[in-house]
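Key idea: predict the complex, not the pieces.
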Amino acid sequence: MNDIVLGTSVLPGPRAPGRWRVQLRHGAFYLAVGSLSLIIFASLLAPWIAPYDPTAINLGNAMKAPSAAYWFGTDTLGRDVLSRTLHGGQLSLLIAFIAVALAGTIGSLIGILSAYFGGWIDNVVMRVVDMQYALPPVILAMVLIGVLGPSTGNVIAVVTIANWARFARIIRAETLSLRHRDFVLLARLAGASPLRVALTHLLPNVRHTFLVLLTLDIGLIIVLEAALSFLGLGIQPPTPSWGGMIADGRSHLEHAWWVSILPGTVLMTTVLSANLIADHLRGHRPTGGQHD
Amino acid sequence: MSGFVLRRLLSATVTLLLMSLLIFVLVRLVGDPAHLMMPPEATEADRELFRQHMGLNDPLLTQYGRFISGMLQGEFGNSFHFGVPALQIVSDRLLPSLVLTFSALALAVLVGVGLGVIAAITRAQSVRQLVALFSALGQAAPPFFFALLFIRYFSVELGWLPTGGYGSWQHLLLPMTALGWYSAAGLARLTQANLEEVLASEFIRMARIKGLPESVVILRHGLKNAALPVLTFAASQFGILIGGAVAVEAVFSWPGFGSLMVEAINQLDFTVVQAAVVVSTLLFILINLAVEVLYALIDPRISHE
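Result:
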C-alpha cells in the first residue's frame, strides 16, 4: 500500500489514538460524570445536607476563612458559603435544566417543522433565527430582563428565548437531509399527517444531534444565568445563586477571596464536566458538532 | 461579486429592521417613563408635559416611524437620564469596548491558532494534553470569573497589574485575557482538528515527497487550506466577545458599552438601550458582512453558490 511506501517514520502524519490515550479519554469522561453527579446530588439534597441556613446573617462571624466548621468560609454578612453554594446550585441547575429542556424542545420542533414545510414558513423562521444570531445572547437576555423584571420565571423564559435558535438552525439542517429519504416518502404515501411524519419519523432520527446539543448547551445556559445574576439582572438577593455569590465577593478579593472564588470554582467544575460529557457523546458520531 | 455583496447587504438590512422593531416594542413594554423619570412630588400635569415633550403620547406607529427615520439619520433622541443625545453617550463608550473586544479577539486568534498548530504538528502527547487542558478550562468558566481570579492573583497577590480602570496597556492586559480565553480555546480546538485533517491528505504527502521544507508544507500548504473555517469561527466570536465583555467591563470598571447597557437598563433609559442595541447589532452585521466578502475573495466558489 502507498502508506507503507511513503512511510510515516520520519514525517509527522496522522496517528491513531493509542490505547492508553483512549483510556485516558474514558477516564476523563467518567471523572466528569462523577463530579457532575456529585454536584447535582449535593445541590438537590441541599435542604438536608447544607450545614447552616443559607440566608442566616451573623455579622459577628463575617468573612471567616475556610475551616473545619465552615468548609468554604463565611461571606461579608457571616453567612456560610458552602450552604449558599449548595442552595444556589439547586436554583442555578434547576433553571438551567428547565431552560435547556424548553429551548431544546421548542427550537427542535420549530427546526423540524420549518424544514418539513419549507417555503415561506421556512423563510420566515430562518430570518428570525438570523436576527437572533445578530445579537449576543447576554445582551438579548439583559434587555428582556430589563423589560420583564428579574424573577426566577422570567430568568427561565429569557434564557430559553436566548437559546432556542441554535437548536432550530441545526435540527433544521439535519431534518433537511432526511426529508427526501425513502422512509419519509413512504410514510407520506401511507397517508401520515405532516405532524405525524415530523414527530414519529423525523424526530427519532435527529435525537442523537439533539442529545449532543442539549449537553453542549447546558454549560452555556449555566454560564448565561450566572452572568445575569452576576450583573444583578437574574436571581435577586438574598436568595443565593452562583452568579450572585461571585458578585458578592467581588470587592473583597483581597481579604476574603473564598466568597467569590469557591462558588465560582464549583460553577467552573460543573460546566467543565458537562462539556467533557458533551465532547465524549459527540465523539461517537461527529455529525453533531460540525454545524456550529 | 458585486451581486453577492448586494444580496448580503439586503439581507443584513432586513435583519437590522426586524431587530429595531423588536427592540422598539420590547422597550415600550416597560413601565411608564413619565413616572420613573420625574421626581415623586411631580404633579400629573408635569408628567403630561414630559410625555408630550418626549412624544410618548403619539400612536405607537408614529413613534416607530420617528424612531426609524431618526435611526437612519443617526438620531435616537435624548437620553431620559442624562438629557444629552443617546447616540453620543453610546459612541463615547464605544471606543473602549472596541479596544477591549478587538484586542481580546486578536489575542484569541494569536494564541488559539498558535496552540492549535502546535498541537496538530507535535509528536509529544504531553503538549497535546496541555493544549487540551487550556481549551477545556477556557470553555468552562465565564469570563467574569477569570477576571476575578486574575485580579486576585496578578493584582492582589503579586501587585503587577491594576485591578481596574482604563487608559494604558497595563489596564488592558487582564480584561483582554479574561475575555479572550474562551475564544482562544475554541480556535485552538478548531485549528488543531482542521490542520490534522488537511495534513493527512494526499497533496501534503506530495509536497513532502517533493522535498519542500516542513515549514513550507505546514504553513503554505497546510494552514492555508485549514484557514477558511477558522476565519469564519473567529468572526463568529465577535458577538460572543461583545456579550462576554458586559460583565468583564463591570468587573474592571472599564468605561465601555456593556457597562453602559447595564446602567441604562437599571435606569430604564429607553433611548440609550435602543441606541446601544442598534449600534451593536449594526457592528455585528457589518463585521459578518466583511468576513463573508473576505471569505468569497479567498474561495471564489462561495460567491457563485
